[in-house]
Amino acid sequence: MRLSECRPGEGGRITKVSGGGPSVQRLMEMGVVEGADVRVVGVAPLGDPIEVTLHNFLLSLRRSEADNVEVAP
Amino acid sequence: MTTAAAARRVVLVGNPNTGKTAIFNALTGLSQRVANYPGVTVEKKVGRMRGGFEVVDLPGTYSLAAHSPDEAIAVRVLLGEQQGEPRPDVAVVVADASSLKRSLYLVTQVVEVGVPVVVALNMLDIAARAGISVDVARLRAEIGVPVVPMVASRGTGVRDLIDAISASLDQAPPEPRFRWPVRFEQILDELVASFGGSRVLLTRALVDACGAAEADLEATHGPAFATALRDARLRVGTNGSTPAALEARVRYGWIDSVVAACQEARPVRRSITNRLDALLTHRVHGTLIFVGIMGAMFLSVFEWAAPIMDLISGAFDRLGALIAGALSGTALARGPLESLLVDGVVAGVGSVLTFLPQIVLLFLFIAILEECGYMARTAFLMDRVMRFCGLSGHSFIPMLSSFACAVPGVMAARTIANARERLVTIAVAPLMSCSARIPVYTIMAAAFIPPAMIAGFLPLQGLVFGAMYAVGVLVAIPVAYLLKRTVRKGPPPTFVMVLPPYKVPSTRNVFMRVYERARAFVRQAGTIILAMSVLVWALGYFPRPASISRGAAGARAEARASLSGETLAARLGEIDRREAGENLRESALGKMGRVVEPVVRPLGWDWRIGMATIAAFPAREVIVSTLGVIYDLGEGTSAVARETALASRLRAATWPDGRRVFDVPVALSIMVFFALCCQCGSTVATIKREANSWRWAAFVFGYMTVLAYVAALVTYQAGRAIAG
User: Tell me, what's the ipTM?
Assistant: First the structure.
């Protein structure tokens, strides 16, 4: 499933990061790469952006950016 | 070679929020200076450390893939490609032990640059609390560069870091342990052979689509480079994956093996940060707490600063009176020099320093929020809301700050990485009602809005006040929306942002942040407002027809002959005020007022309001004192007495045909004009500096002035139609 579809507490191992451009590159530099574990921590008041945790830190990203990330629970 | 050129240079690189600034402060103490890199609004922080080293704190960055101006500068200085910046002798990479993988990503990139590298492995205390322990000797062996364990917030490891830096000088650069795929190296070799220059810069150009390196090299080598680059990228990216994806995959592949060898993580209870975030970024509680914090911050900026502001403005009034007193009886009394000193210089400096307490308080709150980690959460919480007008969560704090003063607001926009979003934020921030508008609203509301209650409990004057604040916000939304769609193109904004762990703010770091920003405000706003105040003073002082002073002298002689005691003093005071009023009416400023009268007539204004508005362009709060002079009130009395007297004088003012000048529609049109107009010399100067463009500053000034005029026109005409 896509990371953008995960609810708080859900997540899994990243299977694919698609798309290009600076924001996807920034995501990958932060460690959002295949094989990393990621979990959704929270959602901002109007449902976007979302807060995720990976490699022991917290990252915020918009749903449109999380659309590029596939995870397997 | 000069001694300055011979100074050894150490650069600090690292992710934001890894304690890089704390390490910089520990190394350099108070010897640091803040300037700007030429042509851009990126702060250059330089200091000296023991042994005569020059230390440069580079802007925080997660990678050498530069997209924002800050990142581009960091990379160029590191590579020795920035004009006027010598190549560094040692690069210190500050790494966060609690997020070792992410930190090592930048380390592997810096090791390729070819200068000696020292890794400052910071935040070991936070890592320990998260159950993470790092085998430092093993890490050092794996990455092949010295690693210094540190807890910079407590000063632990600073001495070892200084020793490691000294030991690394003149050493051969480290041999990178991370290796690119052979095919990538071959393609890069070809680019190096064709175009020459820095191998790392060419790597960045090859990998970072739309990045700063690509733009720089294309500017140097022209279209041939663009073609070669496009071709090289196609060859690097196998089966549809981009070079950027390749880099992330191979670097993290290598990092995973290093971290597996030297890091041990045992499971712990959820960290404090995770538990706090469950509360603070929660959709309901998080929002309530956020509104509470922002409201408290805002109210205290106004409440706590008010007494100090009164004290300062009172002190400047007394200073002016003191100068006048010292000069009385000399040849300079009542002359142009006295007037220049009292009404130009002292009043000008006073009007800057009066706002300083409020601005320092605001900077203090912002510094505390930044230091404890909450600032990133405000951007997270407000992102969706700000997107209604095409901005992002990053614009929230600049906007909020602008309610106190647009200068710190515009300065706060620096943290916005996306250039287009930064420009739009800068353009709409001055629409927020700043504290300098309050005196204007106060005097108009006090004079013309009846102190009635709506529905028995809502004060009408308060509602009008609130409406003025709302006007700025409501206008900002469509303006930002339109600008966002028309301003020059750039990379699409991203909201990928690390939410740093919460921590107790360090007093020292908070103090340094407040001090730096307050100093920048005084230097920048101070010089501009002072210059503009002197200019407006000159326009309002010259020319002075001799007939006016002759008439006043005659009146004084007559009064002295016929009156005595208190009645004489009162009469003399009245003559002084009338003389000042007549002089102002005959001055260049007064003439300008009459020239613009046809233009301001549709707003319901007479030439006196037009003139006072012109005088208020450098600093809007000046309108109160200008109106005071033109209505023969003088300036010497206390602020409260002045306001009451001015209010009654304004109510009594008439057109030549005897109709009243001011009524509710006129007052509202003046208030709306002041709410929307960019009457602030220091804001315009700050925009010029922050956007690095006179054109942008002129545009903001222009659009706000036009908008203010149109809105005031609509207000007055609609008010007239309703009031009849």
Answer: 0.95
| Residues in chain B, total | 724
Given a cut of 90, whether residue B124 has pLDDT beyond it is: yes
Query: What pLDDT was estimated at residue B6?
Result: 60
Beta bridge mates, B94? B14, B120
Task: For residues B593 and B591, give the distance between their C-alpha atoms in angstroms, rounded to a whole number.
Answer: 5
Q: How many of the other CB atoms lie within 10 Å of CB of B145?
A: 23
* Alpha helix (H) residue ranges in B391-506: 396-402, 406-412, 419-428, 438-448, 460-486
Has residue B698 got a pLDDT over 90? yes
Nearest to B522 by CA among B401, B368, B686: B686
CA distances from B232 to A23, B183, B185, B191, B216 (A): 22, 11, 11, 8, 17
Q: From the CA of B211, how many Å to the nearest CA of chain A?
A: 8
Q: Among A48-57, B12-21, B569-578, B692-701, where is mean pLDDT lowest?
A: B569-578
CA distances from B479 to B423, B484, B704 (A): 12, 8, 10
Q: Is the pLDDT of residue B639 over 70?
A: no
Choose, out of B495, B498, B502, B503, the residue to mutate when testing the contact with A (most A CBs < 10 Å): B495
A49 CB neighbours in chain B (<8 A) are 380, 383-384, 393, 495
- Per-residue pLDDT tens over the stretch B106-116: 999 999 999 99
Q: Is B250 on the interface with A (CB under 8 A)?
A: no
Instruction: Report CB contact under 8 Å: B283, A45.
Output: yes
pTM: 0.79
Query: In angstroms, how far is CA B423 from the centroid of its own chain?
Result: 12
pLDDT at B332 over 80: no
C-alpha distances out from residue B718 to B453, B597, B607, B651, B710, Å:
23, 20, 21, 21, 12
- What proportion of chain B, given as a percentage, has pLDDT over 70? 95
Distance separating alpha carbons of residues B455 and B462, to the nearest angstrom: 13
Q: DSSP states of B279-313 as a string?
A: HHT-TTHHHHHHHHHHHHHHHHHHHHHHHHHHHHH
Interchain contact, B384 vs A42, CB within 8 Å:
no
Q: What single string gives the DSSP state of each residue in B613-682?
A: HHHTSSBTTHHHHHHHHHTT--S-S-HHHHHHHHHHHHHH-B-TTS-BS--HHHHHHHHHHHHHS--BHH
pLDDT-derived band at B490, boundaries 50, 70, 90: low
Residue B636: pLDDT over 60: no
Nearest-CA neighbor of B536 among B584, B577, B603, B600?
A: B584
Sheet holding A57-61, edge to edge: A69-72, A11-17, A37-43, A50-54, A57-61, B497-499
Task: Tell me if B377 sits within 8 A of B396, measured CB to CB.
Answer: no
What is the bridge-based pairing of β-strands B43-49 and B33-36?
antiparallel
What does the alpha-carbon distance between residue B391 and residue B480 come to, in Å, rounded to a whole number? 7
Bridge partner list, B119: B93, B147
pLDDT band of B1, cuts 50, 70, 90: very low
